Amino acid sequence: MRKPIISLTSIMLIIGMVILVAYLYFVGFWNVVNIIRSLDLWLALSTIAINLICVGLYTYAWKILIRKGMKFRDCFEIVLVSIFADLMIPTGSVSMEVMRISLTQKRTKMSLGEITASILLHRVLLVVSFGIVLAFSLAALIVTEKMPLVQLLIFAVVAAACLIGGAIGMYAAFNSKRFRGLIESWAKRIGRAIVFFRPHYDIGKISGEILQGAESFDESIAGLKRSRIGASALILILWWLLTATIPYLMFVSLHYQISYIVVLTVAIFVSMVGLIPIGIPGMVGVIEISMTAFFVSFGVPATIAASVTILTRLVLFWFELALSGVAASLQGIRGMLTGKSRSID
């Protein structure tokens, strides 16, 4: 079963690399290289530290939602491994959340409902903070920049959709008992689906475990202080704002003047493109084209836009891939050692 997945991933990665090579050809690779040679190296390297701070903020925004508490180091490592899974198996961040649930279950005695509650709420707050930051950038653009009406309407619709979606998600999370009938119905359907493939499974037991997880989810949400939820949302807003400073500082390092608000808006929309489950690992080629196109739409010269895009991707993709890959490798080694020690015992 694993071979087709590996083979498909390899094929999609090759497609992504072909798109990337075509992108570099059309933007003028050597022109981009010449522009990058003029960058302020130390300023550009400072974005690596900013990226680490961003990962830390993202992690802490999740940690404070875990009612029983976990060490920050454990949360940080789990987030890194889940980032690696998301970069290698792009499914709109679903693989990232599944990996977080799996690793947290292995490291703690928390129930599935408690773990799912913290991760789901973290995800909802991420959407809410996204909508707030987008609305802020949109308002700032109206005041400071001249924008085509169509572009302005697109931004406004996306911001409104995110805020409404986040509000619905928050309502569903804090009023899940109202959806208990729907949960029970889905529990039975999931149980029947599993029994269809695994006849020896007890459908009643499976449905019961799902409902037990729902009860645990309710208790976890109800027991969480609203101050923690508010703090998590504020941290995620800061995370969005700080992440956008990475491409902004790349512009500064290339001695090109641009509004931070423009960079923030582009960074937000590119992150949305990254959530499209196309299947290309790291969305190689797709993100590069999208980010460059967005910057060009704001009047940035193509070669400058491409240079900033490539430099930003070196930090936000290739550096994160290397760092998270090391974390995943250490996690695998630790798992093997733990398995061996148990077998010896």
Describe this structure in words.
This protein has 345 residues and is an all-alpha fold. It has one domain. It contains 14 helices and no strands. The chain has helices at 2-27, 29-36, 41-63, 72-88, 94-107, 112-144, 149-174, 180-197, 203-222, 226-243, 245-253, 260-274, 286-297, 302-344. Helix 3 crosses helix 4 (72-88) and helix 13 packs antiparallel against helix 14. It is globular. The two termini are 32 Å apart. Residues 1-5 and 340-345 have low confidence and may be disordered.
Which key features would you list for this structure?
mainly alpha; disordered C terminus; 345 residues; 14 helices
What's the gyration radius in Å? 22 Å
How much of the residues is beta strand, in percent? under 5%
Count up the domains.
1
Could you tell me the mean pLDDT? 76
Topology as H/E string?
A: HHHHHHHHHHHHHH
Global outline: globular
Per DSSP, the total helix count is 14
By helix and strand content, what is the structural category? mainly alpha
What's the number of extended β-strand segments?
A: 0
The unreliable regions are: 1-5, 340-345
Q: Helicity level, as a percent range?
A: over 70%
Oligomer: single chain
Characterize the main sheet.
Answer: none
What gap, in angstroms, lies between the N and C termini? 32 Å
The gist of it:
82% of the residues lie in helices and 0% in strands. It has 345 residues and is mainly alpha-helical.
Write the layout of secondary structure elements.
Elements: H1 2-27, H2 29-36, H3 41-63, H4 72-88, H5 94-107, H6 112-144, H7 149-174, H8 180-197, H9 203-222, H10 226-243, H11 245-253, H12 260-274, H13 286-297, H14 302-344
Helix pairs in contact: 2-14, 3-4, 3-10, 3-11, 3-14, 4-5, 4-14, 5-6, 6-7, 6-9, 6-10, 6-12, 8-9, 11-14, 12-13, 13-14
